[in-house]
Amino acid sequence: MKLSDLKLNLDFDLELDDSPAESMALLPALPGRGDSIAGKMLFLIVALLMCIGVVVVYSSGAGWAEQKFSDPQYFLWRQLTFAVAGMAMIFVVGAIDYHIFRKISKLFLFVSIGLLALLLLLKLVHVIHGAARWIGFGALKFQASDLAKYAIIFHFARLLSEKKEYIKDLHDGYYPMLVLLMTVVALVALEPNFSTASLIAIIGFTLMFIGGIRIKYLLATALPLIPIAAVFAIAAPYRVARLVSFGGGEKEFSYQVRQALLGLGNGGLFGLGLGASKQRDLYLPLSYNDFVFVVIGEEYGFIGAMLILLLFAGIFVCGIIIAKRAPDLFGRYVAIGVTFAIVFFAFINIAVSSHLMPTTGVALPFISYGGTALLFNSLGIGLLVSISRYRKKVETMERAQALLESKGGAL
Question: Within 13 Å and on the Cβ side, how many CA atoms surround 96?
Fold first, then answer.
């Protein structure tokens, strides 16, 4: 290995005063870029979640697939295909320099805003009827809000890292980020997709808070936004029905809530066993997607449900460790944003399935049926792996600099 190779790998602009051979002789063996335990553990956890997802989607969706597509294995093969593609995504993204996403973050964000606006335009001219969430053709469709969520994370991480010196300034720091966030949130809310819009807003404000935006600015924004969001939430009858079902007592439970609670109750401590769910077969709507956690609780019991919670807790811990050890602020903010997004969406799904929150259409990451959402989340995990692989580059350069200077060289 030559020191010129070290320069290439670490992405630093160096001027070498020593010859490569002489410099290399001064350097000790350096740790590999893949030596991060947190990154490896994260990969194993996500791989296990994907495997669980394939099994549970097949178990929960076979009856629905037989009824709708005349093929009980329809969901199985599609979920397996996307799981393999997701693993490949993690490998590819984990092997590249995550700083690429800093360079394209602005393009990423404006493309997502353009797609969200296009969906609303198509809905306005009646090309799309109902919720305008999906874009694409045939099997190549994805929710534009998934793209927008990660675009916000990437671009906010870039702005917070580049504007660190004046991020606390109201006009130069806070307002530009607030305008971008509210634009995305408003477009997603108008699809309508109120739950995802709310979660994107929470992710954006969380990043701004961690990045150093003055809390008084955030509170001043929240004061008018909360009542506006409340009015928007009760503007649609179906959202009102969900709120009434959540807060109105057992007599007001919706059909979904009743079936979900029955399923979780059936599972007991150890569950009914693989494929033995009673609620999945045409009783529990979307048992393979929004309410897949109910099938896990029914078939694998409290033990299985706790395992899922522990796995997502593991993602949170690994993500925080990677963020803490990130070599720069951009990597730190991306790691925090991705970790928070995945774990927060999982928490919402599990809380809804357990009737701890009003019913909303949020999937369980890596487990619920759905290809493009799994791929976007795999992109996020790949970035965490990439950040973990680069975490020692600053320390490595400092060690190399110190060794060369001790021998009279310079790096």
Answer: 15
Burial 42-66 (b: 16+ CB within 10 A, else e): bbebbbebbebbbbbbbbbbbbbbe
d(CA 204, CA 21): 48
Asked whether the beta carbons of 149 and 363 are under 8 A apart, the reply is no
Q: What is the Cα–Cα distance from 33 to 388, expressed in whole angstroms?
A: 8
Q: How far apart are CA 19 and CA 409, in angstroms?
A: 10
pLDDT cut 70: percent of the chain above it: 86
Answer yes or no: are the C-beta atoms of 97 and 390 closer than 8 Å. Answer: yes
| Main-chain phi, psi angles of 254, to 5 degrees | -75, 170
User: What was the pLDDT predicted at 23?
Assistant: 34
Omega before 192 within 30 of 0, i.e. cis: yes
Which residues, 6 or more positions from 360, have their beta carbon under 8 angstroms from its beta carbon? 194, 195, 242, 348, 352
SS3 category, 329: helix
Q: Which amino acid is at 251?
A: K
- Alpha-carbon distance of 404 to 15, in angstroms, equals 13
Q: pLDDT for 337-372, tens place per residue? A: 999 999 999 999 999 999 899 888 889 999 999 888
The confidence band for 58, taking pLDDT boundaries of 50, 70 and 90, is very high
Tokens encoding 174: 């806070």
Amino acid identity, residue 1?
Answer: M
pTM of the model as a whole: 0.85
pLDDT surpassing 50 at residue 34: no
Instruction: Give the residue among 191, 104, 101 at the shortest CA–CA distance from 145.
Output: 191
Give the three-state DSSP class for 193. coil
Q: Which amino acid is at 287?
A: S
Per-residue pLDDT of 267-294, as tens digits, reads 999 999 988 888 877 678 778 888 999 9
